[in-house]
From TrEMBL:
Keywords: Gas vesicle. It is found in: Gas vesicle. Residues 151-171 have a biased composition (Gly residues). This is Gas vesicle synthesis protein GvpL/GvpF. Residues 136-171 are annotated as: Disordered. InterPro entries: GvpL/GvpF. Belongs to the gas vesicle GvpF/GvpL family. GO terms for cellular component: gas vesicle.
Length: 285
């Protein structure tokens, strides 16, 4: 989140992206983070995609409070990415981080002028390129995987109890199940790790750049299995079909491992981290 802390009451300018010039008509019917229609602010050979939003909802103190509301944050993120994606379908676009806010459009124009060289360099690098994401998971649903729990947990007998009865046989069966589960998890993790190395080697050769992200927490992603590998690749648009086909080929016919391919996306992962408001803008999070 980036906020110009001198913003007064009234309205402020929310910036979605910096892009090469594009017809403003591409934004017709597009709705931004507060329901309004974004517009373009031009400076030489750059444009900023901007929304006029109420300061009461988007100044520093308001954003700090609203970012605690996950439903609001998710809705704003969807709208933000929707605007960026719309523009990126027509021209090279450099997404700015969520909730980048300036005092007004004049401040936005000044920001474009101050960082024109850096923006131009980044846009040149991303022009004609897309981002693809690849994740590798262990697959707990693979055929032959032992059950995660279960068996007879009551006082009944098992085939391992022997003539003496009691709980010794049931206890041994439980330990065997737990050992089998652990070995299955270890085997799946090993296969996923080896596949990840292979994928990164092969797909990396088809990409111009890559970013290795932290694996996602299973509780947050909602996906089955453990995320072992999480990477983004910057791929020339004319090689996207080859990249996707190769990724699917590498993921085919696997047991105990699952591969997730997403894209093509606007190359968010390859936006330089340095692009934050300067001058009167203040980085607050």
């Amino acid at each position: 989140m980036s906020v110009d802390t001198t913003a007064p009451t009234g309205t402020v300018s929310y910036v979605y992206a910096v892009a090469r010039p594009v017809d403003a008509a591409v934004l017709a019917g597009v709705r931004g983070v507060d329901g309004g229609q974004p517009h373009l602010v031009a400076c030489q050979d750059l444009v900023a995609v901007v929304d006029t939003v109420p300061a009461a909802g988007f100044d520093e103190s308001a954003l700090r409070a609203r970012l605690e509301n996950l439903d609001w944050l998710a809705a704003v993120a969807r709208a933000h990415h929707g605007v960026v994606d719309t523009v990126a379908r027509h021209t090279a676009a450099l997404p700015l981080r969520l909730a980048t806010v300036y005092h007004d459009d004049d401040r936005v124009r000044r920001m474009l002028a101050d960082q024109r060289e850096a923006f131009s360099t980044a846009l040149d690098r991303l022009t004609g390129r897309t981002e693809w994401g690849v994740k590798v998971y262990t697959d707990p649903t693979a055929p032959g995987s032992p059950p995660s729990s279960g068996g007879n947990t009551g006082g009944g007998t098992s085939a391992d109890s022997g003539a003496g009865g009691g709980t010794g046989g049931a206890g041994k069966a439980y330990l065997r199940r737990r050992l089998a589960q652990r070995r299955s998890r270890e085997d799946s993790w090993q296969r996923a790790t080896e596949l990840s190395r292979r994928i990164d080697q092969v797909l990396g050769d088809l990409a111009e750049d890559r970013r290795h992200h932290r694996p996602q927490d299973a509780a947050l992603s909602g996906a089955p299995g453990e995320n072992v590998f999480n990477a983004a690749y910057l791929v020339p648009a004319d090689r996207s079909a080859e990249f996707a086909a190769r990724a699917r080929e590498l993921a085919c016919g696997l047991t105990g491992v699952r591969v997730e391919l997403t894209g093509p996306w606007v190359p968010y992962s390859f936006v330089p981290q340095a692009f934050t408001p300067n001058g009167s803008g203040t980085e607050v999070a």
